[in-house]
Specification:
The structure is a homodimer. The first copy, chain A, has helices at 31-42, 74-83, 96-103, 112-118, 121-130, 144-154, 180-187, 242-258, 293-296, 301-310, 330-340, and strands at 23-27, 46-51, 64-67, 86-89, 138-141, 157-161, 171-174, 192-196, 200-210, 216-218, 222-227, 230-236, 263-272, 277-283, 321-329, 346-350, 361-370. By secondary structure, the first copy, chain A, is α+β, with helices and mostly antiparallel strands. At the A-B interface, helix 1, strand 15, helix 11, strand 16 and strand 17 of A face helix 1, strand 15, helix 11, strand 16 and strand 17 of B.
Chain lengths: 373, 373
């Protein structure tokens, strides 16, 4: 294919593809919905947001909004479902009552079951282990004694709420069994798990899209650095060898097929001494560690998500540049914004949030460099 | 600057810069407004559209709309002007009554005067000649005899309505003075001009942004091919030598400085045998021949426009790929869409128009290739 070739003719979209002008319904109105709306518009689709706040960041660029008054607001969910051609998600941190209401509608991509699984560490880790994707040793916790017993067996560990955790929230680390009652009292009002804190070399993620036909397009493995439990930077290429990258891609591919997943997802992993990879979390949606694709690929993770859920062919995930994405977080991120706009080879994105609270993701900036090698 | 450098700190935005969250008001709700809204959102701004139809293409991704009931709808213009932090334009084909209403508000970028000038071929060509930018020979036409006299002197010519012409509308060619009465009867109900039809080698355009501080960032010269009066393809790099490119850039730069222009503009030109360039039209807005910048540059023409009118530093206009942009026009363009989505190295954009009328721009596709040399 050269630049001089004529435009191709003829449909390659399957009979299930949503027509241009169709409406994508998304549960959640944050920055992921915002960037999804922009990708949807480029392909001729419109975005309808279901969220509690009609002033959510996505609404600057979304088409319609349905207000969800409470997680059991059946009227809102049903009106939303009736108004859209496909239902998708920008978060897996959803109340089970809302998931149950959404599950009554058949046109969710990914499935509500996949979102529910990714939103509950117990279901998620049991699934990963069942399909042969290794994780750090873990266990459900029902009593403070469960914590103590786990630490006696595994050493240092981290206790996490099973649901509604993100950006390091709902997590406590402990090395000493004597701390078990304190940790259990702090977190144990809801279902919790405990997992071994193993010394990993680095954190990586694979962001991939899977179509309804089972086709998969995976972006290059990304190396992630967290600070204070929040993603700070994502770098591509990751500093890992080819065999390790292959293991990471294989794990993410297994997850996608295992969930019969449709849409874009991410798998976060730890890279261990020796090159083993241990799965940490599934994100059933566009993921912060894939933001670099907006500027280093012709089709971003958001476009791939839209393509997958609308039944369009997936685009090439090849990148045309090396990249480092840095999150702009809280007041410090806000202060960096103006300077960033004058930095060469850097693309800056702002999410339109009105308050620059500490720990809040306000935007990101991706610095690009020519591909090495 | 390497990828490993820390984020820069400190403001480089002048005191006149619009804060994040500010509202850009745009006159017109078509695809240029749509793509401007997307660029505005990435930088944290919101778009408010003034147009006749709240279902215009831009409204899929715009924040607010004010309905303009008629060109002299003062209440709408004033409400719009009061609700936005800066007024800008996606078209220069505006009724003088609307321009006069807008001119009462001081915060237009570019100025209403620049938009008026670009929207009237008489003002435009007189201005170009005054600042030393050559055009084809031209004259105002008041009678059929003016046409005949011009043809006797210059040969083949094209008669154009002075205002409200785009995509080849309001134009008639003639070679024979005997046709003058027919052409005058067809077009002469409104102000018209006549211009010599010279044998040019190619058509090119320069798309550039100019900040309020006079800084200019010009994208590479683009070569344009029209079909049936409508832009068909834009190719970069243009097949012209460095001296010709330099003349084209110089002409566009003169125009921008001459108008004390703020924002993004395009200058369309003819390349003549021997390398002279003759200016054809000024577009006081993002331009179809700059759409390739969306995919071949880190900051598109739309982002540059937003940066310029909001007082942010202009981004680098460097491109990272060669590109051919092809417009998707009418039913044939609509039929090409689905096939395009599977073409590698191609980025496709759809404008969300509901009807695929003949001659209507429905979208575009940009095919990229590695930079040569």
């Amino acid at each position: 294919m050269t630049l001089a070739d004529p435009l191709p003719r003829g449909a390659t979209i399957g009979p299930q593809a949503l027509q241009r002008g169709a409406v994508i319904g998304i549960v959640g109105g944050g920055q992921l919905g915002r960037m999804t709306s922009i990708a949807a518009a480029r392909l001729g689709y419109r975005l309808h947001v279901l969220s509690a706040d009609p002033d959510d960041p996505a609404m600057d660029v979304a088409w319609r909004h349905t207000r969800l008054a409470a997680p059991d607001d059946m009227a809102a969910v049903d009106a939303f479902a009736a108004a859209v051609d496909v239902i998708t998600f920008e978060t897996e941190n959803l109340d089970e009552r809302l998931l149950a209401l959404l599950e009554r509608h058949a046109h969710a991509r990914p499935s509500v079951a996949a979102v529910r699984l990714a939103g509950d560490r117990r279901l998620e880790k049991a699934f990963l282990n069942r399909i042969g994707v290794p994780t750090a040793p873990w266990a459900e916790v029902r009593t403070a004694e469960d914590i103590a017993a786990f630490i006696h067996a595994q050493g240092a560990a981290i206790v996490k709420t099973a649901r509604a955790g993100y950006d390091g929230k709902g997590q406590m680390r402990l090395r000493n069994a004597a701390d078990s009652p304190r940790v259990f009292d702090a977190l144990g009002g809801v279902p919790i798990i405990i997992e071994a804190m193993l010394p990993f070399l680095s954190e990586v993620s694979v962001v991939l899209a899977r179509g309804a036909d089972g086709a998969i397009a995976a972006f290059d493995v990304t190396e992630n650095v967290h600070r204070g439990g929040i993603l700070d930077t994502s770098t591509v290429p990751a500093a890992i060898d080819a065999a390790t990258a292959s293991r990471a891609l294989d794990a993410a591919t297994r997850v996608a097929h295992g969930l019969d997943y449709v849409g874009l997802m991410a798998l976060e992993m730890f890279v261990m001494e020796g090159g083993a990879v241990l799965a940490n979390e599934i994100a059933p949606r566009p993921h912060n560690s894939g933001h670099w694709t907006m500027d280093a690929c012709l089709a971003s993770q958001f476009e791939q998500h839209v393509r997958a859920i609308c039944g369009l062919p997936l685009a090439s995930p090849a990148r045309h540049a090396d990249a480092v994405m840095t999150n702009l977080i809280g007041p410090q991120g806000a202060a960096a914004w103006e300077g960033l706009l004058a930095v060469p080879d850097t693309v800056s994105h702002w999410y339109g949030k009105t308050e620059a609270r500490a720990g809040r993701k306000l935007g990101h900036a991706t610095r690009l460099a020519p591909l090495k090698g």
